[in-house]
Design goal:
It is a single chain. The longest helix is centred in the C-terminal third of the chain and has 25 residues. By secondary structure, this protein is mostly helical. It is 73% helix and 0% strand. It has two domains: 51 residues, Homeodomain-like (Arc Repressor Mutant, subunit A, Orthogonal Bundle), CATH 1.10.10.60; 127 residues, Orthogonal Bundle (Tetracycline Repressor, domain 2). Helix 1 crosses helix 2 and helix 5 crosses helix 9. The mean pLDDT is 90. InterPro entries: BetI_C, Homeodomain-like_sf, HTH_TetR, Tet_transcr_reg_TetR-rel_C_sf. This is TetR/AcrR family transcriptional regulator. GO terms for molecular function: DNA binding. Keywords: DNA-binding, Repressor, Transcription, Transcription regulation.
Amino acid sequence: MPKIVDHEKQKEKIAEAVWNVIHRDGLEQCTVRNVAKEAGLSAGSMRHYFPHQSELFIYSMRLVANRVKTRIENMTFNGTPAENVKQLLFQLMPLDEERKLEMEAWYAFTAKSLSDPELKPLRKEMNEGIYSACKSAVEMLVKTEKKTGIDVLKETEHLYALVDGLALHLIMAPERLTAERIDTVLAGYLRSLE
């Protein structure tokens, strides 16, 4: 009897192999051969799922977005509005090994999208999603606290830059920027909106 293969699980396994290769060796080493080896597949099998490298990268980027979305959907919010927002924003930061792999892959893909026209639309879509999450967070805090005189668009840009910057610095200098420090910095900013 032929072996039944879950094609979606296989594609996820390949995408995770991409993340591991990026983490260990960098994006330039994400060749079909290296990713196939990491995933425990033949190069031919991998090409069956992803005939072109850009398709592999797009799938890998979408998987990052889907995992973040799933984590957020599975959250329970029972703290103050600022605590809830902070917990939501933590899902966008590399605070554990899974999120670190996702974030490293995201930054590598973002850099590649500057020269790969097939990746640009997805980069734009994902950036807009993060911006939208930051805007919703600011709007919720302002509305909940009935605060007046807050420029929501300006504060959205502040929060978006803060989230992006903290995530990048946690990847680049984990020995300097700890999860506790991120918590303190983000909590301080969110309190300014209360």
